[in-house]
Amino acid sequence: MAFGSKKSRCTAPFGKIAPSGLVDLHNHVLFGVDDGARSVAQSVAMLDGMAQLGYAEIAVSPHFDAASGEPGIGKQIVLIDAIEIARDGASLPRIHPGAEIMFDERFLDPAHAALWPPIGGKGSAYLVELGMQPGAVPARLEEQVFRLTARGLTLVLAHPERIADLQRDFFRLEKIRRAGMLLQLDIMALVGRYGSKAQAMAVKVLGEGGYDLIASDIHKPEDLPLLRRALLCLCDDFGDSFEKLASMAPRLLLEGRSDELD
Length: 262
Ligand SMILES: [Fe+2]
Description:
By secondary structure, this protein is α/β, with parallel strands linked by helices. The chain has a single domain, classed as Alpha-Beta Barrel (TIM Barrel), CATH 3.20.20. The chain has nine helices and eight strands. The chain has helices spanning 40-53, 73-87, 105-108, 141-150, 164-167, 170-179, 196-207, 224-237, 239-254, and strands at residues 22-24, 55-59, 94-96, 100-102, 125-129, 154-158, 182-186, 213-215. Helix 4 runs parallel beside helix 6. The chain is globular, with a radius of gyration of 17 Å. The structure holds fe (ii) ion (FE2). Fe (ii) ion binds at residues 26, 28, 61, 100, 158, 217.
């Protein structure tokens, strides 16, 4: 059987399997700040589509520029307000600030720490990314993660299945997770959006219970049909973990309750 090819038994918006709604901590819904939504109309279209899929809460995650400190939470609030006006009363999903931050020497520099937008705009949980090209994962990553988590930070690694060094070395992925990093699946990897290696790794790690949460990473309204297909695929093939990965775990992070994650 080709993975994810059978007729879906699940139905969006997933109210039966995740009654409190889906929560997304990684997306590019905020307009005009990165390679995501280009206009307020695109932001609204993405939010409308996410509402139809059952999303109750999202934290936006624009690519963060450590040099300029933008888009900071102040700018994000202005843009979120503009989106809310354009949404004309639609209440779900609720929108919170956030950022996707490159895990590099600037992230490790305590002098920069006040700049980083945390997930949801408050608390001490951060969404971080690593370079995807071969050789990009720092040799001392586990030690750095261990030190930061010991200081009380919660680190969520975006799309590990798309990182070449980790595709070749599952043991390294385990070590990173044991050091304290939470692993976030880019759900569209499950249906081949990022190629066969990322898809195979997503299926394997999901099967081993290696992910802590999932996220959409949508960039434009045209991503919505594939996001829907990916969620149905997760629901059909990994239904037992759907609620935890798509709703409960991201909600705990958003609410600053990461200590309650199992
Ligand atoms: Fe992203």
